[in-house]
Structure formats: C-alpha cells, structure tokens
Amino acid sequence: MLLRDLLSAPELRLVLLTGDETPDREISGVLITDLPDPRRYLSGGELVLTGLMWRRSPGDSARFVAALAEAGVAAIGAGDARLGMVPDDLVAACREHGLPLLEVPVEVSFGAVTDFVGRRVAAVQAGDLRGALGRHRRIVAAVAEGAGLRELFALVETELGVTAAVVSACGSVVAGALPEDQAVRLARDYLAAVRLPVVVDRGGRFTLFAVDRAHRAAGWALVCRGEVDAEIGFELAACVALERTRAEAGRRVERRLAEQLIALACSGGEPTELSARLRTCGVDPAEPYALVAAAASRRGATDGPDPALLGGQVVEELLDRRVVAVAGADASVTLVPLRGDAYGDDRDALAERLRDRAAVIAAGLPALTVSVGVSGALTGAQAIRGGVEEAGHARRLAAARGGGVVTGDEIYTHALLLATTPGEVRSSFAERLLGPLFDYDRRHGAELVRTLGAFLDCTGSWNACAERLHVHVNTVRYRIRRVEELTGRDLSSMADRVDLFLALRAG
User: Fold this and answer.
1) DSSP states along 75-92
2) pTM score
3) Among 23, 62, 247, 371, which residue's Cβ finds the most Cβ atoms within 10 Å?
4) Which residues form the PucR C-terminal helix-turn-helix domain (predicted)?
5) Domain ranges, residue 353
6) What pLDDT is recorded for position 341?
C-alpha cells in the first residue's frame, strides 16, 4: 500500500508533518517500537510507530531518525500520548533525512493503525498473487497447447517482463535473439559454471539456467537478461525442457529409420533396398552426403554416460539438430546430407563447422574428450558401408590425438597405422629401436635422436640436415653412423628408414 492510502483513511485522523513530496512511498508493514535503535528488527519499507519513550533529550531525535533512515523505513508515526505533541526536534530530524513523519492522535491506538495497514497490504498481496497465478496459467496453457519457443518467449516477455533466449552448449542460438559472439561466450559460461543458475556479465547481466538434466556437452542453457528470480527461471526452464522433449519425441522415428539404414548397409544389404531406405531417410541416392562418427568421454573415466550415445547427442547439437545420430558399440554414426543451405556444399565445409563448434565445448569442458571423424563426400546407398568404416578410422585417429575432428583425407597415412595400434605395442616398438639412442644421448649429450629426426625429415640430405641443425656436415655424418651402429639399421635402406621414422612417431 502507499502512504497516501494511509493518510486518506478518515478513521485514523493521521496528520502528515513532513514528507508532503513523497505521498507515493510504499509501505510493506508496521513495526511498533520504543527502542532508541531498532535497526536489527527492520528490513526496509516499514511504517515505524513509536510512543517516544526513547526520547530523553532533543539530541535523541537525530540519532533515532538517522538509524531508521539507514534501515530504509517508509515513514515514522509518532504518538501524542507521552508528550502531548510531536517535538520540534523530531520534526526537524525527519525533514533533514527526508522521512515522512505522521502525528498519531491520542485517541487512535497503534493497534488500529497496524490493523489498517495489515488489511491493505494483504489485499495488495492477494491481488499480486491472483495476477501471478493468472500469468502462470496463461504461460502453462500456451505450452500445453503446443506453443513453440518463439511464442513462449514472446508471452513471457509480455506477462513477466523477462527477455529470454536458449543457447546450445556449442553456442548456437536455439530460440530468442542473441548476437553470435555473445551466444558463444554465454555457452562457455554455461559449460564452465560450477553450479547453475549463475549470473554473468557479458555486455550486460544475464542469468543462466540449465534447461534439463542432459549432459552439459549436449545441453541447453536458458539465458535470461538481467538478474531473474530463481523460481521464474526454473519454471521457464521447465517449459523449455517440455518443448525439447516434445521435439525429441518426433525425432525418435527419424533415428529408428537411420539406425535400420546403417545396420542394413553395414551387413551388406541389397542395393535396391538400401536406396529405398536412403530415400525414406530424406536423402536422394544421387545426393552427396558424408558419414560422421563421434564419441565423447571424460579422460580417464571408468563410469559416466555412454561415449557413443553422448557423442551422437553432441554431433546433433553441433549440427543444430538437423540430423539424427545412431549409437553404435564404440561410437555414434550420423549420415549428413551435403546441402548448401545447411552445412555447406562439401565435406570440408562440414568438417570446419564441426571443428569450430566442438572447440567451444572443448574450451568449456576441458576434461571431456570429443572425438569426431568425417568421411569423404559420397553418393549412392552402396557407399554407406565404406563411409562408416572411413569415419570410424578417422574418429579413432582423433581420439589418439586427444580429441578434435579428423577427416578421411588424414587417415591415409602412417598416422592411421599408429592410431589403430595398441599403445603398449607402439611404446615397445619405439623403445626397442630408439632405446639405445636415448641412452647414448643421456650419457654423452650427443643429440642422436634429434639428428635422426632431422635427417629423415630432410629425406636423407646431409647438407640440408646440417643446415637445419646448424652443425658441420661431417658432424651429421658422424652422428648418423653412430645411429646405425647402435640400432643395427642401415639408413641407406628405405625399409630401415621407414622403421626408424615410425618409431620416432610412435614414441
């Protein structure tokens, strides 16, 4: 209620002594006190009623009013019963601090004032509650009737004054309006937050809420402009989660069709049936496409979400949920049409998009390894099986590198052989060939291993190797001769060069 409402009550006969300029002050409640400093009992916005029992001298008024002003009270009501009037020093102190001062006649009890204020505040709160319930019903009804996120956010802004958007973990805007660079920064804040909700400053204050219980790498963040009440944020996040669940239900059919297509292709299905199933998945057999394999797991973790399932969820988010991923034994597989309006018209554009967005997740969740392999551009249903194998090899190479995106072009090198060889075998191979060189270098500081690497990189050129190492060519000849003696290999032999080259890369 407002101060003017209190003054307009004829039965109270209150007289305003100071504060004519602030009749619209809001009163939240009443405190009756005669303590000289009642600040510990005040939270702000109260009407303080006092019988002036604390006043022993004129100086007491200044101290009393200063304490109430600091506590943020709305007004002071002084009773006439003790002194027969309101002392001038109290009036002066209230005027100095800008506090409204009301004179309460002797015949009006503080209880009557308290009852009046209590009834009016309760009525205002009831009206606010009815309004809030009405707004809540309208929002829930809109969600139940199938309103999309755009309609939901427009309604929330109108009813609650809250401007909101939804951002995926990789920084794409799912709904609402945010600049791309700001969305990416907010996605990183969402991923890195110890707990949610969290308030961040990114060109303005934003409150971030988790939309559902999905892993953050595949989750959505509700972004509300400003500092938003937690209850409002949680309810809005629940509405967004409901819409996400509704959309996911429709994608289950697409995922089942894709799963049947991949399974049939990998088992050597008939070309005619494969082509028909490819069309059922919305891809023309003459249309180019690529296969994407993905897995995501915490480094060194023995539990947690299934890497293949989480990897598929991440890829779906990286590609704005325009594709569906099929979870396999060790990775998910996604067939991605190479359409210019979605991912670019070639495989390289698709790979670049995946790299850019996966980098956001890697920066926000450094403990999570996301490994993605992308096949070359393919056409025809019969190419699916080879594409799945190629994407799988590329994904394993990405995992061996500690995560990231690898294309099929990169696997047709020695790196594929090393990536698919067990780690203990690689270590044993490198130790057997290079162990004597490392031992010699430790004892003599001869840099045989470094010289061997430079010699092979220079394709066996003595002069080029000497220039790279900034040493005399005879020094290179001497060191290479020592390498041959210690390893038992002949560096004029291509086979021995290959063995030593692989040992350097495997170590």
Assistant:
1) EEEEESTTTSS--HHHHH
2) 0.60
3) 371
4) 448-506
5) 282-419
6) 58
